[in-house]
Amino acid sequence: MVLGIAILLVIGMAVYVATPLLSPESPGEGALPIDVTPLTDLKRRRMVVYENLQDLEFEYKAGKVSREDYEALRENHLGEAAQLMLAAQEQEEVTENDVIIERQVATRRAQRKLQPHDSYTCPECGFENPLPVKFCGNCGTKLPQHASKK
Ligand SMILES: [Zn+2]
Question: What is the pTM of this model?
């Protein structure tokens, strides 16, 4: 519990410290284009983290960043990248589920479209006669008039 809070604090500080380093097109929650999905946003943020890592490496090698700062920031960037990756994986699972559900709905809609509005479902065998008929096409049972499917 205490450790979790400490980690959150460190991540928060890292974001605060790293903010001036971010490029101008860095994430701003309100500035997201509408067509950006949570998944592409996560991937983009991960790219930003990796860019920051590269920048950090560069600045460290150039002697602009102390070894202590470099190691602390690097740790934070890597942690952030790992978190974003996990979040992206979760998001991908959600997206896959959505696609499956959408497909099922589309299939059901297509099936419904194929059936006439007043389907002549046989009360005996359950066969759905595609045409308005007086007798079941499957078992020959006389169908009630204006039978409606529900
Ligand atoms: Zn029948």
Answer: 0.42
